[in-house]
Structures are given as C-alpha cells and as structure tokens.
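Exam review. A common question shows you a sequence with its structure tokens and asks you to describe the fold in words. Practice with the pair below. Do the first one on your own.
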Amino acid sequence: MRLTERDPSVPKDRLLAELVPPPRFADVSFDSYEPDPDQPSQAEAVEVLRDWLSGWSTPSRPRRWWSRQGAEPDGDGGVYLDGGYGVGKTHLLASTWHAAPGPKLFATFVELTHLVGALGFHAAVEALSAYRLVCVDEFELDDPGDTVLVSTLLRHLRDAGVRLMATSNTLPGKLGEGRFATADFLREIQGLSAHFRSVRIDGEDYRHRGLPEAPGPRSDGDVAAAAKQPGASHDHFVDLHRHLAQVHPSKYGALLDGVAVVCLDDVRTVDDQSVALRLVVLADRMYDRDLPVVASGVSFDELFAPPLLEGGYRKKYFRAVSRLVALAREGTDL
C-alpha cells in the first residue's frame, strides 16, 4: 500500500460527520486522566471542567444563529485549557466532549478552517449553531486571516448560545503576540479571549516522562520487513512529501484510511516551511489514529531544521516531533 498512489475524495457531509474526538481519544474520560501528583493544576483542571458541566441546564431546542445576535449564552460560555505539550489538554477536551449532552462537535483549529472552506462561512455558522458544544483543539495563530475567520465564527456561535471549549499552548490574550503587530489583528484576539475562562495546566510532556529519547532510525531492511504486515503503507519520504503537495490537507485523514502502520524510507531533515507544515498536518492525523511508524533515515527529533524550530511555527513543529517520536516508539517492536 502506497500513500503516494492515493487521492481520496472527501464529501462535505463526511467532513462534518468526522468532527468527533479521534480514535486515540474515543474512550477517554475524566476518570481515565491521570494527574501528575507534582502538578496540582492538573487535578484542579478536572474539577473545573466537572463543575462547568454540572452547571449546564437541561438541553433546549437549538436556535438559529441569526435569532440571537447580541445575546449571551446561558451560563459560562467558554473554557480555555492552556498548557505545554503532552500535559493532557486534548484528553480533557475529549473527556468534556464525551460527558457533555449533544449535539456536539470536536475539531482541531485546522479542521475548523477546512470546514469553513468547504461549506462557506454562513453555511458553516448555520450548521454549527445547532450544536450545544463546540470543542476546538490546538487553537494556534499562524495566519492572521485564519484567526479572524475562526474568531468571527466562534463569536457567531457564542451569540447563538453555543458553549465553546478550546486548547492551545498560549493564553487567549497572548495569542499572536510576537508574530503579528497589527492593531486590527490584536483587537480580534482580545475580543475572543474575553469570552473564555482560562485554565492553566502545568507539567512536562507525558510522552517523554520517564521514557527514553527519540528512538534511532531503523534500517531499510527493517522498514521493508515491517511493510509486509497487513495494513502497512510503504513510501519513500521524499515521494510522500511531494505527493502531499498535491492533496488538500483536509484529505490527509482519508489518505490514511485502512492503514495500520506507516513505513517510510530515508526520512530527511526538512528546511522548507511549506513541506514542514504539510508534514505537521499528516503527523497530527497519524497520531489521531495511533499509527505506529517504522522509518529509516534521520530520527524524528531531527526532522525539522533548526531555523524552522526558531520561527513563528515552532509550536506546531515541536508538537509534531513529540507525536512522531511517540509513534516511532510504538513501532520499535515491528
């Protein structure tokens, strides 16, 4: 199976139907979250979310988005989980989604922008206004246009009575700081941040907690042997990242349909930002599906060139490295 030979077609209804917690978080709950005893903010975050959910009223009839312009949501409209990589923010976001009454939606920031692009802004607002809860994972400001788009969308949803929950690695009032300096952009961020209760979660990346560093690269023979397993994909790294340029990122999840393990030959350090950002999206979709990786070439902690790790997208790259290292560990026995 070669990912480079796939060009999936993803209808709009599938884009909407798939906006639920990914398979890795399909069965998580507050009870399955394991707070670090040395980080009291983790246990406190669980209690904040339980209290937030306990204050919800009996489900009411969804309102059309245009019927409540200027109205405030009943109760606390939003919660924002802020913290570093691997402290369990997505676990808690998905746990809240599972515990909340429906209808409800779970999407990454990128998936939300893709959805708006597929449906159109007004159609997306109308469709999402029927939900009681919208969860947005990894809210990041890499592009001011996307930020204005999503912040406007969330403002419409808030006015329609939809409760909002988000995660990121930066406090809402600080999003975009140090990247863009335009007054209009910062005003958009501040307007959005006022409607979230920020909950800080401290701690170290659980994927590295007590675990070894990134596993070394495998031999080409190891990769070829792993590729013989049922459901394994097998591609050369350069061929794959060139193919990704021809596939819309909203289809990267479908690109992995039926894949059980990802095998890559000759992984190389990337210094092109466009290539790197596409790899970030693919890494997220692989991590969502908990796909072990067996790869030769450089180890994943060397995937992105140092200048990329010092730029405005560094948070995306560090998250991708953390996730790929975790998947490479899962592939060490294959």
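Now try the second one, then compare your answer with the model answer below.
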Amino acid sequence: MKLRGVGRRYGLGGPWVLRGVDLDLPPHTVVRVEGVNGSGKSTLLRLLAGIDTPTEGSLTGRPRTAYVPERFPAALPFTATGYLLHLGRIHGLGRAAAQSAATEWLERFGITEYARTPLTRLSKGTSQKIAVAQALLAAPELLILDEAWTGLDTAARATLDGAVAERVAAGATAVFVDHDPRRLADAVGEVHRVEGTALVAVEAVREESGPRVRIEAAGPPGAVLPAHLPGAPGRETGLDSTTLTVAAVHSDALLRALLTSRPPWHIRGVAHLVPEDR
C-alpha cells in the first residue's frame, strides 16, 4: 500500500488532523506508529484500514486488510462464535473455513469455554481476545492493530505477538500503535511518528532485553534461508548448519517458518539463552 499527500480533516472547515502524509507499507514488515495522545495515530490507522477516507491525496494498492480498533464494540447481538463466523464471512471465508478459523483462534487464546456466550456478557479481557481473533481469521495481508494488546493477559499478549510474527513471515505487513515502547521491539522494521499534522520517519531501535532462543538448523544442499524470518533473527553460518538467535516470543513462529519452508529445514537443536550466554 502507498499513501501520497494524504490529508484528513473532519468537516469542511475543520482543522487538519493529518496532512501531506507519504508512506509506503512493504510486505514482510512490522511498522510502529508513535505520537502523543490525540496526535492522529488512530486517524492514520483508520485510513489504512479503509474505515476513513482521505480528504485529500491518494491511497493505492490496498491488500486484504484486517483491523483491531482501539475500542471493541461489545454491545452486538452475537455470541463469541457467531461474531467470529460473521466477521469471517465478511473477510471472504466460506462457512466451513470461517468455522474452522474461529475454532482455532478461540483455542489459541484459551477461550473455547466462551464460544456460545453473548458478547455482552464477556469480560473486557475476553472481549479483547475476540476483537483480535476476528482480525486474524482470514490471514490478512495488512494487519492493523490500534492498542490491541490493551486488556489482554500475559499469555494472550504472547499469542498475539506470535500471530504478528507468523503473518509477517508469510509476507504480510503489520502496522500497530501501543503504549509500551518495547512492544514487538525485536521485530519492528520501521517507526513513524505523528508530529503536528505530519508523519515523520524515525530510526527503529531494537531491544535486546528479555529471553532469547538459539536455533540450529540445517537445510538440504543448496537451500537458502528465506529473506524474511519472524523476529529478524541474528544469523551465524557454519559449514553445514546455520544458527539463528531470536527473541523468545518469536521462536515458535520462526520454527514454524523453517519447518514449512520449501524445501523444509531440519532443526538440530533449540536452546533457551540466559543473559551470560549472549
């Protein structure tokens, strides 16, 4: 997707929230959007999601898009599964595929017991898991997350981190806003800040804190590792194997990417590192 000279204001004479925004969203990329409260971050994400339209400028090349809003509208006449099925169909899935995807994401977020519970009776945390699940149902090419981690428990946050890594490894673009500056720090490829009405690129700084995992993998003769792997792992190439080091939150997605690549790679060893091992 590309934005050129995009501006947005509300009302004919209203002040500009954003103006002159140029932005490219390449595949295999995690993009963080920063800015103070009320700066226009959510407006930008709504433009990317197609919820809002630009007042001026152009937005082209829209891929299959999914969006998690800052506030989930829980007062809807659906059960948890009913809502996921409904959104799955909107995302273009057939009924059987939508049912399978709904079951998968309810299981991954550990909320299968609420499958038939009306949305209005769910806790805020469970509602947020449903909000995230609907965005992941149809394997979007552009995943837009507006403070999607807020309200999630630790396990669900890790599940969402892993899901973002999976989508990006598959070629998607993820754009997110979050109050935690460490969120997806090992995976972020671009950072943009809303300043005034402009969008300014800033340097991405990777966090090296937190648990990491070292994976030793070997491919068949002549095999080359994919260019984009979950978590942007560090690489050390040996005579007959490659060692990859990645933040632990991305390790499952990285292993999955190696094992499902064509041709698949053989995993020789997995080690969890302590700080002195790095």
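Model answer, second protein: The longest helix spans residues 154-169. The chain has a mean pLDDT of 89. Full marks require stating both points clearly.
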